[in-house]
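Morning. Coffee machine broken again, so started the prediction first thing and wrote up yesterday's gels while waiting. Chain of 149 residues, entered below exactly as on the submission form.
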Amino acid sequence: MNKATLIGRLAADPELRQTGSGIAVTSFTIAVDRPYSKGTDRQTDWIDIVAWRNTAEFVCKYFQKGSPIVIEGSIQTRMWEDKAGQKRKSVEIVAENVEFVPRSKDTGAPSFHTERNEFAPPIAEPAPVVYSAGSADDFTVIDDEDLPF
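Came back before lunch.
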């Protein structure tokens, strides 16, 4: 089974492009912190993501540089040739679902954690709602003043 789930932050603003046949696509990179132990430096992996159609439109409309994001998809490898004729290999995640990171009820901050105690059981959180299945036109942008909390 080829399934990947990542939680990270966008490294740059995503840009929506169109293929020659008019299909929406975006590619972007997310920064994913590795688990770490006390006394060691944090390490970050920079993971390339590609999203198509409604998922691409959703990402470009609702996410920007630094936004926390949940990506579910599959790992894809591609072989290609650079301008110098050298064979290259790219590894990326093809996003199937994109979700907002759930916010903490207390602080409003993203509630994902990159530091984990290996002896503690995982913290159960409610599953986030998946928004990538709908059209980008199904959502409206609201101001912070419109929120009831």
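The domain at 4-146 is CATH 2.40.50.140 (OB fold (Dihydrolipoamide Acetyltransferase, E2P)). Going to sketch it on the whiteboard this afternoon.
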